[in-house]
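Write out structure tokens for S-norcoclaurine synthase.
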Amino acid sequence: MVVGDKLWHKLELPVPASEAWELYGGLQLAKLVEEQFSTLIQKIELVQGDGGLGTILHLSFVPGTGLSDYKEKFTKIDNENRVKETEVVEGGYLDLGFTLYRVRFEIIEKDGDSSIVKSTIEYEVKDEFAVNASVVSIDALANIALLAKNHLTKPKP
């Protein structure tokens, strides 16, 4: 048997959906996260691809954070609907008995000058490892959304 669930977070962004998607749709967000969360993330390495479908990133965490390195693959990029999905394909959550750990970012147009980022974690974990489901938290994605908001709204040079 497998246990699964979804967690989500929404944050309004004071920029058009197209501008938010520029950040979320490719590799820019990973670069921003690596740069701004240096106390947690040691490195985000591009293993394969160019930011499009099939791109694989290797996330390495700072020793002592309790987080395990993993690789994630961009499994869906829908530019029309502004949806991007990544799945852990090696290490990390898979080492804890998860059979699926998927992150979805949706940029939803609110009006011409604002949008909403909806961040979702979808996971499945084997029954015998169900206790490990407690490590899943939406907090990191909420912090990334806030980081993105701050980045998108800071004055351009």
